[in-house]
Amino acid sequence: MKPAAVHILLALAETDRHGYAIMQAVREQSAGAVPLRTGSFYRHLAALIDAGLVSETSARPADADPRRGAYYRLTPRGRAALEAERRRLVDLIAVFPAARRAPRKGHA
Fold first, then answer.
1. What is the mean pLDDT of each run of 10 residues along the chain (108 residues)?
2. What's the CATH number for 3-101?
3. Half-sphere exposure of 7 (CA within 13 A, CB side)
4. Exposed site from 8, 25, 52, 106, fewest CB < 10 Å?
């Protein structure tokens, strides 16, 4: 899964958000490392919606900004995908110490 997609799912894990709030959350949680412009953000979001991981919701939080458009939420399938990605990354990180200790060919 692309980093931008993972960050979008993470931004929706706690609460429903509108597009701009998702972009802000991605910027904050990635410390700016995942650059999302409006066009690329909505392409990623559309792919996540098409995959059934995110859905548009008509429900609005009590403190919703009435000037904002659509709100989005993580679907159960999206939560499962996010958890699978978390497990994959944890497993990947677990092999790093072993990879560091393994001698390179020709280096003993």
1. 93 92 93 88 95 89 71 96 94 78 62
2. 1.10.10.10
3. 22
4. 106
